[in-house]
């Protein structure tokens, strides 16, 4: 039976005196790809950051994994953030000067804390194979990769972390059509593996290929 992995009730967020989110209500069921779209400056990224526990809200309630955020401790929030939530950022969020191994290893600190280096490398290579990156060495520096390759490395990091909820901010914004299609196919595979993916986007292709899509102005 499907349950709501995210529930938002009467959410409000202000920056100084400017309201970015007003009385928003939203539910996100598990095992779905959900697109949230709308004009620039309409609060999409702010909403994603609130769901991902990296921004606070002023009023209302956010429930994640059936736990009300206002009722849990900072320690429990940190645990949810580390284990259950992953981000794919618009700029990929990779450390350009470091290797693929370093960047993927960051994601594995909490999911595989006791795994040996050899086993980590094998798992990383398995994921790279799945993402059609067999040609890359784990020693390759991020700045040497194309935009499409960097996006796949960002997705590989999410896969290795193993979180239940994946939050993607304009995940296809800098990609050509072929790479967009590849990314959406990967998201569909992740959904089939039991993940929930929430994508903030302007991209009609992403909106059309999501299970559910919301215009943010209709949520408040």
TrEMBL record:
Gene3D superfamilies cross-referenced by the UniProt entry: P-loop containing nucleotide triphosphate hydrolases
Keywords: ATP-binding, Nucleotide-binding
Annotated PROSITE patterns: ABC_TRANSPORTER_1 (PS00211), ABC_TRANSPORTER_2 (PS50893)
Pfam family, one: ABC_tran
Record-level Gene Ontology MF annotations: ATP binding; ATP hydrolysis activity
Domain of life: Bacteria
Domain called ABC transporter: residue spans: 6-219
UniProt xrefs under InterPro entries: AAA+_ATPase, ABC_transporter-like_ATP-bd, ABC_transporter-like_CS, P-loop_NTPase
Protein name per UniProt: ABC transporter domain-containing protein
């Amino acid at each position: 039976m499907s349950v709501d992995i995210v529930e938002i009730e009467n959410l409000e967020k202000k920056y100084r005196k400017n309201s970015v989110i007003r009385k928003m209500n939203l539910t996100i069921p598990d095992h779905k790809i959900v697109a949230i779209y709308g004009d620039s400056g309409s609060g999409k990224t702010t909403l994603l950051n609130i769901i991902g526990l990296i921004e606070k809200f002023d009023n209302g309630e956010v429930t994640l994994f059936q736990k009300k955020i206002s009722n849990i401790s900072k320690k429990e929030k940190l645990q949810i953030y580390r284990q259950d939530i992953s981000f794919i950022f618009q700029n990929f969020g990779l450390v350009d000067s470091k290797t693929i191994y370093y960047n993927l290893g960051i994601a594995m600190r909490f999911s595989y804390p006791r795994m040996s280096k050899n086993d980590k490398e094998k798992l990383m290579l398995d994921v790279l194979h799945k993402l059609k990156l067999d040609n890359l060495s784990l020693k390759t520096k991020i700045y040497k990769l194309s935009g499409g390759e960097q996006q796949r490395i960002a997705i590989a990091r999410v896969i290795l972390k193993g979180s239940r909820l994946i939050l993607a901010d304009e995940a296809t914004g800098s990609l050509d059509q072929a790479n967009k299609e590849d990314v959406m196919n990967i998201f569909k595979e992740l959904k089939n593996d039991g993940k929930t993916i929430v994508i903030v986007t302007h991209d009609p292709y992403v909106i059309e290929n999501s299970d559910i899509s919301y215009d943010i102005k209709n949520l408040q």
